[in-house]
């Protein structure tokens, strides 16, 4: 809130017969840390009790603030609209006003803040957004019709690379330090070239099938179709009765997943394939939940060969109980709702 908005609240409470102490307590209860100080509340309470009506500061002695004019506000707005990445220094030089006046106009007059770009997998077309929304509505309707049974029937899976070394992000490398302690430094590092491709299928109870692709091979339709058949055997052995209740297969639209051989294997195994919109990792539990958590745990660790890396992956999966996997799938309904609310746009993690 601006100073004038706080003063309007104080003025209203004064007219209600409140004293400065009570007004201050009410402001802190509602606005917490952004509430004005007690001295400020006391000052304006006294002014309003003496009959003051204006919320504005009294004019200062000396030269008036002439930079914040309608002409400069208009000029600054045109500059910002023409170049959204323009700096305050560039604006000040172009318009011929101080940095302080630039900040005043940007924040107080134009109500603008500079925000970071949010990275998304793809700039979605109108059709793609409509497709995402329609599929989210379909899945949410099916979930509501079946409730918990719907989530329990889902089996989801995907492929992903895991590296022998994946460096920590800046956020993950933060350390607790005192203000006078030197800031830690480390050289810029890249993920290792050595890596392996894993395919994982899982449900609310845990991992059903984990497969590592041999080197110099690629995930083909034949390979994926064989995995789907192995998955059926795994479900039969680990989840008694799940096949008879009907498996809902949730995977993305990768070409090998949609290939004729893979689709034939889906039919052969008796899976019901759930709709999944293209370019939608934010609706794929393996992407937004399972792989994200796994790789966060592996980052910063160095593995000297494939077997050591495979063991670390298997150990991490085995360390998680059913509640972890269930929580990931239970996020789906709320994510479908958010896609619908955003009219098909990507949602935040």
Written overview of the protein:
With 349 residues, the protein is α/β, with parallel strands linked by helices. The chain has 16 helices and five strands. Strand 2 (195-203) and strand 3 (206-212) form a beta hairpin. Helix 1 crosses helix 3 (38-49). Strands 3-2-1-4-5 form a five-stranded mixed sheet. The radius of gyration is 29 Å and the shape is elongated. It has three domains: 3-49, Arc Repressor Mutant, subunit A (Orthogonal Bundle), CATH 1.10.10; 70-109; 126-171 and 191-341, Ribonuclease H-like superfamily/Ribonuclease H (Nucleotidyltransferase, domain 5, 2-Layer Sandwich).
What is the terminal-to-terminal distance? 28 Å
Q: Note poorly predicted spans.
A: none
What is CATH's topology name of the largest domain?
A: Nucleotidyltransferase, domain 5
Large-scale geometry: elongated
CATH superfamily annotation of the largest domain: Ribonuclease H-like superfamily/Ribonuclease H
Helical amount among residues, as a percent range? 40-55%
Order of helices and strands: HHHHHHHHEEEHHEHHEHHHH
Mean pLDDT: 91
What fraction of the residues are assigned to beta strands by DSSP? 5-15%
Number of individual domains? 3
- The structural class is alpha/beta
> Strand arrangement, largest sheet?
3-2-1-4-5
Number of strands: 5
| CATH architect. name of the largest domain | 2-Layer Sandwich
CATH class assignment of the largest domain:
Alpha Beta
Helix count, DSSP H or I runs of 4 or more residues: 16
Q: Major beta sheet, specifics?
A: 5 strands, mixed
CA radius of gyration: 29 Å
